[in-house]
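Try this one yourself first.
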């Protein structure tokens, strides 16, 4: 049965009175909702599922020095959770979340899953570099982030991976090391597979990349620690062969038809200027 409202008995005065009650109720309810979102509240913020409605966190974000070895192991474990990019970023951010809380507790690190296998398996830039570079940028600020990231990229191309720092807990101990000479996932994986004789989808290669994730995250923390102490100095220099190629092909050169700082000879045949 439908109940019809008797509009003749619903006066303008009744409407105003009821509207006032409704407005008061909304005001009270709204205050209860926003009370949990004030800048001083941490309730339900630690999982990054909510944001402070009125708090803006200026770049760069705060930093406290971390233990590279703790981060190295977390990076290794993080790879098995959600691969390289997430593993590197989470290894650093989770430690800062524990030490500092907000704003790190507001950052949804799951967004970095996209970088797996050089971005959704495309084997472009190694996911560890994407994740760790994001952390360096977040903390380094406008003045220093580029130099910090450049140092990390240079380190990656020259280092022997994986390091032995994981052997006390890794699934595969004493693995063959290789130097990629490139920041690309494709080159890094293929170079190691050739050196080790293992397949690119083997459990051994998985473990190698898990270790690599920890190694890159740990080095990023070493850079951040030096930066925090005011001791960071950019030291990476491009190989002479790369500088030679850039002389013609990069900005200001006679051809000026490319950009970049990677080793040209890995993909292009050498030629005389």
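Now uncover the answer:
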């Amino acid at each position: 049965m439908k109940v019809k409202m008797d509009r003749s008995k619903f006066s303008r005065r009744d409407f105003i009175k009821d509207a006032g009650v409704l407005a008061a109720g909304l005001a009270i309810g709204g205050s209860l909702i926003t009370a949990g979102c004030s800048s001083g509240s941490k309730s339900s913020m630690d999982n990054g599922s909510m944001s402070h409605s009125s708090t803006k966190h200026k770049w760069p974000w705060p930093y406290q020095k971390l233990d590279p070895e703790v981060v190295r192991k977390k990076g290794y474990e993080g790879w098995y959770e959600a691969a390289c990019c997430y593993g590197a970023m989470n290894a650093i951010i989770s430690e800062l979340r524990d030490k500092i809380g907000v704003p790190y507790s507001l950052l949804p690190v799951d967004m970095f899953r996209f970088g797996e296998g050089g971005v959704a398996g495309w084997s472009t830039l190694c996911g560890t570099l994407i994740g760790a570079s994001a952390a360096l940028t977040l903390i380094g600020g406008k003045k220093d982030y580029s130099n910090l990231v450049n140092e990390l990229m240079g380190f990656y191309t020259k280092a022997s991976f994986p390091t032995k720092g994981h052997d006390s807990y890794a699934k595969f101990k004493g693995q063959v090391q290789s130097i990629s000479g490139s920041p690309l996932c494709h080159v890094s994986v293929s170079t190691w597979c050739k050196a080790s004789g293992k397949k690119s989808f083997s459990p051994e290669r998985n473990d190698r990349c898990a270790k690599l994730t920890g190694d890159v995250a740990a080095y990023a923390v070493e850079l951040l620690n030096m930066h925090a102490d005011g001791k960071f100095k950019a030291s990476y220099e491009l190989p002479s062969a790369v500088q030679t190629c850039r002389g013609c092909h990069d900005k200001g050169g006679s051809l000026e038809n490319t950009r970049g700082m990677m080793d040209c000879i890995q993909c292009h045949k050498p030629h005389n200027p």
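Discussion: Residues 68-99 form the longest helix (32 residues). The chain has two domains: 68-228, 237-273.
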